[in-house]
Each structure stands twice: as C-alpha cells, then as structure tokens.
Design a protein that fits this description.
Length: 218
Amino acid sequence: MGARKIERVVLGDQVYEAIKERILDQAYAPGEKLNVDRLVRELEVSSTPIREALTRLVAEGLVKTEPFIGFATAPLPDQSYYEDVYSFRSVIEPWAAAEAARRRPGPDVIKALRDEVAIMMTHAPSREYRSHRSFTEADDGFHRMILRAAGNQVALKSYDDLRFHLHLSRLYLTREQVVGITHIEHLAIVDALEAGDAGAAEMAMRRHLEGSYERLIK
C-alpha cells in the first residue's frame, strides 16, 4: 500500500515537471489550450496525474483555467508585471539582507548559501528550461534562505506567493545571460552576511537586484 502511494507521488511530480518544462520552453505557446486527452496521449499516463499537475501549475500562474473552456498556458507576463516584481523585491530583499546580517547567520546557513552559489556557477542559465532549472532553483533557494534568516514569516510568505522565479525563467528563452557578474554579486551578499555587516548586506542585495533588473528586464 505504501509503495503504491510513493509511486503515485513520483509519477505526479514527473508529469508536473514535464508539462512545466514544455510551457517554459514554449513547446506549448503562451495562451495555447491544453487538452487533457492530448496530454494523456503525449505523456502516456492517465488523466488523474495530468489534472493534478495542471492544478499545481494554475496555482503557480503558468496555467489558466476557465469554466467550460478548460486549461490553457498563461500568457507571458507583460513589462509592468516585471516592473512590479522588482519594485517589490527592491523593498523587501535589501531589508531582509540587513536584518539577516544583524541576526548573524550561523556557519551552516553561510555554507548553504555558498553551496547555492556554487550550483549557480556550475549551471548557467540557457535557452532551455531543463538546462537552467538547477540555476533557477539555486537562485530561488539563495534568496529564500536570506528571507528565512531575517526571521519574518510574513515577508517569507509574500516572497513564496510571488513564485516570480518561474516567470523569470520564461525570459531566459529570449535573453543571453552573463552569469559571472551575478556570481560576484551573490558572493558579496554572503560575505556581508558572514561579517554581520547590515549596511553592506543591504547595499550588496540592492546592487544585485538593480543589476539583475538591468540584465534581465531592460
């Protein structure tokens, strides 16, 4: 009984990742209708994990659903969405970095942050989601860890609810990324956190977000 439950969870995750990858790579174009029966044939699974995966993707904003119409891939966010995301981040994340520095993260947190940077250095983003998935997840983990280290659960939940890293992933198809600068910026944040320098941590995070905006959005 337990083994069957584990298999179902693994299958559901695989179906979810397969559909998400196709959306992010635009194998399913923005706004394209997602027919459940077609997905059943393509992925060779039953409709249950398909519908479960689509429901997860609706919650993440990559799929839309409407009564009597069904599922469709979400349209690409417009410029104003990304402007709003970075406006929010420029308020909450420099503050979180400063607060985390004041609280002096322990060696285990510092090591975990450096590990995430190492993953990003190994897996540079490219124009296929499969190849930049590790980079995206490590980048998300890095920023989320700092928010958690700040000790504010409301700020962390607000960050989680945005799920903006998934939507930023959709830009990697159209923009070349110079990751060397990104790594330097991340390491500057970690160094400031390790030193317990709140001012330097806040400034390093602000510079990173401004640089990320210039490279990815503008």
